[in-house]
């Protein structure tokens, strides 16, 4: 423990745990995993220490644990009955970092790739188990959002004895098959979401085309100094993936050329506004979470190489290419050019290429164990989720014994940001029907 704080009805305790880089070699090199414990100050401190643990596994990969300043949403609901443990998953946040600054100390690209091969869901789960034992906890509850749900499926596969219950939101991964299946479904969902969005905001169709056309012909620079290319601008499509964020895209686009609604639209020598460029930079850089790009396709790899699956499937969907007549906005697809255009990723290009060609990934899921699952489990499947496909999610749900599924079109991938309190309460009730 390295710190205790109490503010705004919230009590926090900070923890640092030492875990092996390779859990198959427990006597080998160690790294640190940081975690922050959250409890409600409404519970006296001694009573709070007797509450059962709930571990939150956030989305990603490569995302640190949430930083909160008060209990709201799902955390407010959970803190009534649990001590919440929020991990900075290995390589992120205040855990031992893995980025363009630290990874070169491991050696060349091959050494870096070998090191990062231990940063997938299986290692995260084994970190959790080591932490659970160190805390002296019995089986605990895990709540996994997005990639955290993938990790929860791995937990059910590798260490179900460590789980009291498993709750998942927008995070049922395919149990097998090449990454191409995922991206074919993803492109289809993102295309439908583009169409829906442009139906709401018809003028934004022209605005997106105007920005991309302008970027083809003009050298526009983000505040950091790097060039904003047409394909990099398409990454603002990540905003399409949520009810709480989608309308932000409209407000972003109306800032593009300045001059307010009905402005220049990019003609007559106009330049993109500083307000617009500053917002776009926050959406298209991976500086805060480089592991997202480096490991994104590896989270689907079991046996074969991912080999830039999203990039290869793009050839089947020319409407997403930056040189299309009216290019669509992209979603959660990682492309090789990321590692040429984002300064935070350029030093990791060779490492990413080695990982993309790695063909001996181990399994992340145990189909037989999932088919015999006895851990109470419940999952929210968002019908129109552009990041985790409904069809693939339901396919997986049907192969996990006892998994209770709530399918809804009321929320998108950011459901727990939209109404986390209600979603958490519903899933908890589904896992504990009595």
From TrEMBL:
Gene Ontology biological process terms in this record: proteolysis
GO MF annotations, alphabetized: aminopeptidase activity
InterPro entries the UniProt entry points to: AB_hydrolase_1 (IPR000073), AB_hydrolase_fold (IPR029058), Peptidase_S33 (IPR002410), Serine_prot/Carboxylest_S33 (IPR051601)
Domain annotation AB hydrolase-1: ranges: 52-198
Listed SUPFAM superfamilies: alpha/beta-Hydrolases
Alphabetized PANTHER family for the sequence: 2-SUCCINYL-6-HYDROXY-2,4-CYCLOHEXADIENE-1-CARBOXYLATE SYNTHASE, PROLYL AMINOPEPTIDASE
Name by which UniProt lists this protein: Alpha/beta fold hydrolase
Organism: Sinomonas puerhi
